[in-house]
Amino acid sequence: MHKWLGRKLKREAGQALPLALITLALGSLLIGNFLSSVSTNLLTSEVYRDELPARYAADAAIEDAIWNLRYGDLTSLTEPEDSASYSLPETVNGFTPRVTVTRLEPVPNLTLATDDFESNSWSGGSGWLGSWSHEGDAKIKKGGGPYEGKYHLRLRRDTGRVERGVDLLGESNVYLIFHARAKSFKADDTAECLVSSDSENWTTVRTWVDGEDDDTYHYYQLNLSAYTSGGQLWIAFASHMQKKAEFYLDDLRIVVINRPIDYEIVTTVGEVTIRAGVAISGEARPVVSWVIE
Questions:
Q1: SS3 helix, strand, coil % of the chain, rounded to 5?
Q2: Which residues in the chain come in under a pLDDT of 50?
Q3: Which of 132, 155, 163, 267 might form a disulfide with 61, Cβ 3.0–4.6 angstroms?
Q4: Topology adopted by domain 110-256
Q5: Do 96 and 270 contact (CB within 8 A), yes or no?
Q6: Where are the alpha helices (DSSP H) in 72-97?
């Protein structure tokens, strides 16, 4: 009986030894991989932890730039490619963030209508429902410093007015983009941009007054999305000025911009770079894109 039991135990011990060795090998592999994973995660966490102060400082620089776009010196960035760089006056987490803000011209998703007046006719351009309707002292004029090309549109006196319609093709995020220039305004002189969904009832969306008459072309981008419910849209420009004042238009476009980015804000702090896209929405300056590089 004892001999039989001894032989049985030896056989079971012989069978258990390979299993134990296999288990030990697998355990070594698993523990090795686990320790490697822990080491990698700890290293990543340490790097991320080291970047956090720089990231918070970069975030602060972006927020400061947005505030300045609404209330500070950056409100002067009105022309495409206008740019300004500055450093925050105080350190953040031991960093002194420097930020660069650039005004962009948003890329249209679709162009509905254009006219640069280079045809020297009231039916020029493309995409319109018909020709410009014009009255009073309104003229397509050659020379005199157009924004580009040889011709631009001039309105004068208290009678100059033009209007034109466009089919919106079911689009809603519609913008009017153009360049305008005012000259020799007096205290009561004004020029207006108006819109209508039926060519009868008009709403003024922009007025130029004395003080904006620097005789220099400026870029304008007007959001007309609130006036697109009718499927068609008319735009008009009118002058209400004394005889020496002049108002000019050039490079006019009606476009669809689904996600406008009007400003790019970039700041690099330490190893962190943040690139934010900001839109113009009334008085607000919402962030519409945010990339950490």
A1: 25, 40, 35
A2: 1-48
A3: 267
A4: Jelly Rolls (2.60.120)
A5: no
A6: none
